[in-house]
Design a protein that fits this description.
Layout (H helix, E strand, L loop, with lengths): L1 H7 L10 H10 L9 H13 L5 H19 L1 H4 L11 H14 L1 H7 L4 H22 L2 H17 L7 H9 L8 H18 L3 H13 L1 H7 L9 H13 L3 H7 L13 H8 L16 H12 L15 H24 L1 H22 L28 H21 L4 H8 L1 H5 L1 H4 L9 H12 L5 E4 L6 H9 L7 E4 L6 H11 L15 H11 L4 E4 L4 H7 L3 E4 L2 E4 L7 E2 L5 E2 L1 H15 L11 H9 L1 H5 L12 H5 L3
Parallel strand pairs: 1-2, 1-3, 4-7
Antiparallel strand pairs: 3-5, 4-5, 6-7
Length: about 650
């Protein structure tokens, strides 16, 4: 049933944020933004080849749906009825209610219906916990070895899977009656620390993990009973971990072939460590806090309020109906947790640990800034905020609570002496209550990324060097160029990436838009100006997205003509019709684009959403039409930018 729901609401094309980059990377077998996620890209590319009869973007989106359903099926290991109920006829209803409720959580569904690494991460978590549960119940050396392997596999896939590593350690080290083998726990804890060290490119953490594994040598002799006794078991455990971590070497191999998407260019050992460790970004430590701890916790509660009934209030602003259902499912979660504690204490502890790690653990570890929608009137107006809502970081915590709430709904039905199917129907309510808010088939949102990408590429002159503002006017362009082979003659220059040496080197190496040495740019000359100057020398047109801020555009040049959705540098004396904003407008081209975009969008408007990107994209697409309106006074609007995009 979950798969059907995900398929019906699956994105029919590329979506905003990272999806376009991931799909383009799978197509070119390239390297997306740090940490590079090589295993995810390999799996995605292989999957898309299996479904070559589907549009490439749809095949990649389908991968996320199947990954999430896989996690749902394997989650049954965490909600199996305990010894007191295992002979009852209602066991299957508990599992069904838990899976449908957890799979209906809004963040889970949003990850499941687009190309997103967090869906694959959930699948890995589901597999790891199912294997760890089997390892603990059977005390089998093979299953414990496999648990260690899967824990380390998070490093080349995505570190978010390590949020569940403490749960895997507990399950693998505990028997059915709840007794814990502390030697096994120590060994797998060492493996986890080593995996974190590998994922953060930290030699110190990696060595600490290895030392802990070696210190658990007495355990290793037990774990590897089938191995000759003269072979140290701890070294075999280290070996298995190295095999799992070796997938990161794909980055090194592919970077040396310089694929079309090659973020960080990890072609050397040093650059590989920089990509894996995400050193391109300003990753905060545990202290000082990026925002007050109480506010970070409150931000989590905001995200929690979005999970069960987002359609009753599809914006960050809380509504009575949405919050009422949140409270109902909190109550069901408490009922489910209490019931599972009595029926199956071991799996209850595992689920409690998963919830804690996926909520308060993530809050403490990631130390995030306030979200775009939270803390206004409390933090300074100029406080640095996250670039987008980060509810997906907490998906495992929401997943755990959903399992409990669905379990609790069936328990409540049993206590009320009604058929368990009614409990399952209550557990499945989030599937309905989130539907209109999370479906990715609603227009115009479903097509906005493609339309924006096509408008930017197609409006650019031939062989143009197109400067763009950030992820959402870069990744759809990469998608169109790599997947649809659209306008590959246009060189897309992402301005926020210009601070990275690897990106400057890429522009020099591939397009000759910068000198090989940074010192040759010239003192006091902005990099954007240097690129624009080199483009002119090569006879290439200079263009800028309408999303680009005015200051950056002025670094590129001063004589601009609007061609639909891009400003194109105009060196001719005939500037067409000059607007009150001091920018010339190519009226024929812009009018043609206004008609084309109107044919795409018509009278449709975007829904209310927790993500403002759709509104922003629609504002950009309306630029050609707005620029042709009768002249406005400078007091009303002193630049086309204020007309075109809603910053």
């Amino acid at each position: 049933m979950l798969l059907v729901v995900y398929l019906v609401t699956l994105a029919p094309d590329v979506t905003f944020w990272d999806a376009g980059e991931f799909i383009a990377s799978a197509r070119s077998l390239g390297i997306p933004h740090p940490p590079g996620t090589p295993l995810f890209i390999l799996l995605l590319a292989a999957w898309a080849r299996l479904f070559a009869f589907l549009p490439y973007g749809v095949a990649c989106n389908l991968f996320s749906a199947v990954c999430t359903v896989t996690a749902a099926v394997l989650a049954a290991a965490l909600v199996r009825s305990g010894p007191r109920l295992e002979r009852g006829r209602n066991d299957g209803w508990y599992v069904m209610g838990a899976i449908l409720c957890a799979g209906g959580m809004s963040t889970v569904r949003l990850n499941a219906t687009e190309t997103e690494v967090y869906a694959a991460s959930m699948a890995l978590v589901g597999i790891t916990l199912a294997v760890a549960d089997r390892a603990g119940r059977s005390a089998s050396a093979r299953w414990r070895v496999l648990t260690a392997y899967l824990i380390v596999l998070a490093a080349p896939l995505h570190l978010s899977a390590l949020v569940a590593a403490p749960v895997a350690v507990y399950l693998a080290a505990s028997s059915e009656d709840g007794l814990v083998d502390w030697q096994t726990a120590l060994a797998l804890t060492g493996v986890t620390i080593a995996a974190i060290g590998g994922g953060r490119a930290s030699l110190v953490l990696g060595l600490v993990g290895v030392v802990i594994v070696i210190a658990s040598a007495p355990l290793a002799g037990q774990m590897w009973r089938s191995i000759p006794r003269q072979t140290p078991g701890a070294m075999r455990l280290v070996f298995v971990s190295l095999v799992a971590a070796s997938a990161v070497l794909v980055l090194l191999v592919r970077a040396r072939h310089d694929p079309a998407i090659n973020q960080g260019n990890p072609s050397t050992a040093a650059s590989l460590l920089e990509v894996i460790g995400r050193r391109q970004y300003d990753v905060p430590g545990l202290w000082p806090r990026s925002a007050p701890l109480w506010l970070q916790l409150a931000n989590w509660f905001e995200y929690a309020d979005w999970q069960a009934a987002l359609s009753l209030g599809p914006t960050p602003v809380a509504t009575l109906g949405r919050t009422a259902f949140t409270i109902v499912f909190v109550g069901l979660g408490l009922i489910g947790a209490s019931a599972q504690r009595g029926a199956d204490p071991r799996r209850w502890r595992a689920l409690l640990l998963l919830f804690a790690c996926g909520s308060i653990g993530v809050v403490l570890y990631l130390n995030m800034r306030a979200s775009p929608s939270f803390g206004w009137g409390i933090l300074p107006a100029n406080a640095t905020r996250e670039a987008r809502e980060r509810d997906y970081f907490f998906v495992l915590g929401f997943w755990a609570w959903g399992l409990w709430a669905g379990y609790g709904a069936v328990i409540l039905a049993q206590r009320l002496r009604v058929r368990p199917v009614f409990g399952v129907l209550v557990a499945a309510l989030p599937l309905a209550l989130n539907w209109t808010a999370v479906t990715r088939r609603h227009q115009p949102e479903a097509s906005l990324p493609r339309w924006l990408g096509e408008a930017l590429l197609q409006a650019s002159p031939r062989n143009a060097v197109l400067f763009v503002e950030g992820d959402n006017d870069t990744y759809p362009l990469w998608f169109l160029q790599q997947v649809d082979s659209l306008r590959r003659d246009v060189t897309v220059v992402t301005v926020p990436l210009l601070g990275a040496r690897w990106y400057n080197a890429e522009l020099a190496r591939r397009h000759h838009l910068l000198p090989d040495r940074e010192a040759d740019i010239g003192a006091g000359i902005p990099v954007t100006a240097a690129i624009a100057g080199r483009a002119r020398d090569l006879g290439r047109p200079v263009a800028a997205s309408v999303s680009l801020d005015e200051q950056t555009r002025n670094h590129l040049g001063h004589d601009w003509r609007l061609w639909g959705l891009v400003y194109v540098e105009d060196r001719s004396s005939d500037s067409g019709q000059t607007s009150a904003h001091g920018i010339a407008i190519d009226t024929a081209t812009t009018r043609a684009w206004a008609r084309r975009i109107d044919g795409w969008i018509g009278e449709r408007r975007v829904r209310g959403s927790i993500d403002s990107m759709d509104d922003y994209a629609l504002g950009l697409l309306e630029c050609p039409r707005l620029s042709l309106l009768p002249q406005r006074t400078s007091a009303q609007s002193d630049s086309l930018a204020s007309l075109c995009n809603h910053r």
